[in-house]
Amino acid sequence: MAPSRSVVGIALAGVLGAASIAAVALPGAASAAADPVLVGAGDISNSGSGDTATAALLDGIDGTVFTTGDNVYDNGTASEFNTYYNPTWGRHKARTRPSPGNHDYNTSGASGYYGYFGAAAGDPSKGYYSYDIGANWHVVAINSNCGSISGGCAAGGAQEQWLRADLAAHPKPCTVAYWHHPRWTSGANHSPNTAVGPLVQALYDNNADVILTGHNHQYERFAPMNPSGVADSTRGVREFVAGMGGASHYSFGTIQPNSQARNSDTYGVLKLTLHANSYDWQFVPQAGKTYADSGTTNCH
């Protein structure tokens, strides 16, 4: 029988001294820490049970939680955040980096949203911010409620200029951005949003990899595309519509070009495992459902 690790450790201690043990790799010992995870969804909390199901998924997934807007319904009030969001997704508030949706702005200045999330939501007059995850990933949270902030989403506006400067200042191997209104979507309730086009262009110009959105209450994955919506396997940005956080489901309408995967009857969360030069995506369904979508893509 092979000696146990504890026996080996005792023997090594006698030869090397206790201070040297940490530098010795024992057989079967754990290697590097697991790659970081970004997990979440949008269109989340109301009086239904969908957010309870997706919050239970987060209970079993470590990592940073993102939201793609419409965190609470219908009006983004402080009372709604405390009544609906806090008992469910609020369990993960300390590790959540949110973005706002149009329902969050049904309360003037989205004061319920900014009051609930505090500094994690960024400057309340802007609602956009960025951060890094691990050594290789830069993350940008955008405010796609273009009419609610100075400069909106226009080219040359404050947010677009900030985004370009931020991306230039953080030349990580991989970049992911998230916001509420999807540039591309096949959902029947909300059409593709052209107002965010300048932000997509800025991301493309700086070799970003992934866009995460919500607004339509469903899941959809697109092929990597350029800002004109043309498939681009070299530099294209892959968009996900991750609006399956708990609000009632929406149906699909006209299926847009380059849409690769869709679901409109399953609540869930989107899990991104962030490797050094690539990412894995996984749709994690609510308990009792079987819809699945997963894959991997290299960073640019």
From TrEMBL:
Keywords: Signal. It comes from Actinomadura meridiana. The keyword Signal applies. Residues 1-25 form the signal peptide. This is Calcineurin-like phosphoesterase domain-containing protein. The keyword Transport does not apply. Residues 57-219 form the Calcineurin-like phosphoesterase domain. Pfam families: Metallophos. InterPro entries: Calcineurin-like_PHP, Metallo-depent_PP-like.
